[in-house]
Fold this sequence. Notes:
By secondary structure, the protein is α/β, with parallel strands linked by helices. The protein folds into 3 domains: 150 residues, P-loop containing nucleotide triphosphate hydrolases (Rossmann fold); 40 residues; 92 residues. The protein has a 5-stranded parallel beta sheet, sandwiched between helices. The protein is globular and about 65 Å long. The two termini are 40 Å apart. The mean pLDDT is 89.
Amino acid sequence: MDLLLHPATASQLEAVAAHPHAAYIFTGPRHIGKLSAALLLAQRLNCADGGGDGCRGCSLIAAGNHPDVTLVSPTDKASTGIAQVQALQQAVSLTRYDSLGKRVVVVESGDSLTTEAQNCLLKTIEEPPLGTVMILLTEQLTSLLVTVRSRCQVVQFRPLSADRIGTYLRSQLALEADKASHIALLAAGSVGLATSLARDSELYESYRQAELMAERIGRSSRFERLVLAQELAQSSVDVERLVSTLTRDSRRHLRRTAATGDHSSMSEAAVQLRAIERFERHRASNVSLKTALAGLLVEL
């Protein structure tokens, strides 16, 4: 696959392209390349030349106009519902445009599928029309029902190393070494995010401010964090980005301490991650931002 991917992920995708099954779950962080990989796989499976690199079918897929490739996106920010799944099922029941290729259905936000939609989709996964490949993209594998997960093959999209992303930014986007290294760290393994940060100065500044705030939180006492929670609730700092930064730092800390066998620090990192999970549950339950932040920052 002609994408910058973790070697283990790239190897899995090559195997999928060579011997495709009926249903897959591509799972991994946002901006990691799941959608790009799914569309590239669709090109490989429908390419007249077999390489996925320029025939008419490939061009149609790249333009979003191939009749045998369907992209299902949420109708709003909340969910992908049963009506969309039923429309998908109707579409895949039709005769394929190209009988030599594959019909590829990509559900862009598997995390947003309602329980009813997943149960409805299950029948198509269990009894797919001939020549159909279904791909569910998800950030959290556990957002899908066990019955759905058990009937799909999982492709794990792993984060890239900061060194690989930094090298890519220097060679492909001509960034200076220092900025490339900083963006590579901010991107937390995602080349898609790294590319966006390199090209969008406002986005880069937003991530940089979140990083600075995370560092400030790390240096603060518990009382100072309570004051910070009040500041944050009224500041221009992107709280979602800040929480993502805190999550990234806690996971890095957990990996480092696990490698050294420092059980005390491992426990501390695990506590931080649980605090972040509680914060996200509180926000999903409409707890006020100020209250949720205070609870999070006190526990970190």
